[in-house]
Amino acid sequence: MKKTLLSLAMASTLGLVSASASAVGIFNEFTVDEGSVPGATANIFEADKITGAYNETLTVNGDGTFDTTGYANWTAYLKNDGGTALTTQLGSFGTAGYGMYAVFTSSGNLTPTGFNGTTGAFDLYIDPGQDTTFGVPATGTGAVALGGTTADDYKIAFATNLIHGKGIVGTPGAFDLWFDDFTLTTGDQNGATAGTQNGDLYFIQPRPFHMLVETNGDFDRFPTVPGPGDYTNITGDISAVFAVPEPGTIALLGIGLLGMGMGLRRKA
User: Fold this and answer.
1) DSSP state letter for 257
2) Residue 120 to residue 99: CA distance in whole angstroms
């Protein structure tokens, strides 16, 4: 029931955006060259969505603000507006498989029913050997502990300018974050491995690459009314798409997301 209601909420929210921006589309295509990853075999494909899971620690401050730090493991590419899963080497087992993860932080204002993100940033990495381990910090202002074998990991993209951050607090709950400065890395980002590896060689189309990225998903669990000084571990699902909204689209999306959240809590 939780997943069904949450899916309806997200679909309704995206429907508001679609009505405003149908002329330019919502899920923009991009092209990936997996052969740029050390150990991967040659494979170029077009996708329009990335999915995965995340783990974070959130701390509520005495003034009603929050801080959170966490990581996301990306596991699949999709196409056809996210309706068709692609067979790729991302997350696959065997010598050709590789991993991709993001480390992120965000801060904002929290209420008993929702949150508004004011700042946020993330770094996106390739893990050629799928041998990096992760540990969330004790508080939302700490740092993700990366272990295992990280010497061959390399950054492929980053974003630091959060222009929209809305969420529904509770279980079920949901979040929607927009960054307008998604940037691919260039040069050699992997000094431990021969050759040149970077984001510009991994995401090869379009040029210039999409700068507006939307990340959204759900909470597996979230305290309904977190109090000052509280901290909690939050896990859930996450997806990323590249969108081209028209003026007013982001405001519509935020209103729709929170409106759907009220309905979710009444039905849950």
Assistant:
1) H
2) 23
Handedness of CA 31, 47, 249, 215 (dihedral sign): negative
Q: Could you identify the residue written with the tokens 């959060």? A: 162
Please give the model's pTM, rounded to 2 decimal places. Answer: 0.83
Phi first, then psi: give them for residue 188, nearest 5 degrees. Answer: -95, 110
List pLDDT tens digits, range 156-184: 999 999 999 999 887 778 999 999 999 99
Tell me if residue 265 falls in helix, strand or coil.
helix
Q: Helix (H, G, I), strand (E, B), or coil: what is residue 92?
A: coil
Residue 211 in tokens: 């700068």
Cα 216 from Cα 164, distance rounded (Å): 11
Cβ–Cβ under 8 Å, residues 200 and 185: yes
Q: Are 103 and 119 in contact (CB under 8 A)?
A: no
How far apart, in whole angstroms, are the C-alpha atoms of residue 194 and residue 124? 21
3-state secondary structure 9-53: HHHHHHHHHHHHHCCCCCCCCEEEEHHHCCCCCCCEEEECEEEEE
